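Lab channel / #folding
Pinned by the channel admin:
"Please post every new chain as: sequence first, then the structure tokens as a reply. Keep commentary short and put observations after the output so the thread stays searchable."

First post following the new format, from NK:
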Amino acid sequence: MTFQPRNLPNGAILLDPFAEQALSKGDAEIASQRGLVALDCSWKQIEQIPSLRKRMVSRALPYLVAANPTHYGRPTTLSTAEALAAALFIFGDEARAKEILNIFKWGLTFLNLNREPLKAYAHAKDSTEVVALQRQFMPQEG
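Reply from TO:
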């Protein structure tokens, strides 16, 4: 069976690295009612799916560091499982985030590496606050 984008729920939160707005706990109600979509594909391919963006609510994850073996330590290069778990954590569902990550040997390392930022993002009231908070977790240049 092939993936059919039309089968995804309209109005769901789409984790999209090119979104103009950051994910926040303010999006939790939409995700609860409509769904949360994390596509397991190269982020480069998501640019080829503009129809999904039109019928979903696109949100970018804030600054986080990957723990998966392929991209360990790289900022913003998360696996799909890491992205989905991060979103759930930000929505306040740490138990489900752990459940998803427990499948992988490195899974809980993701939460340990990102514990401080994830907690901060989960307490932020909205996207604007999340964007402001992420600056404190990004490496300082210079």
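NK: The two ends are 50 Å apart (CA to CA).
TO: also worth noting, The first strand starts at residue 13 and ends at 15.
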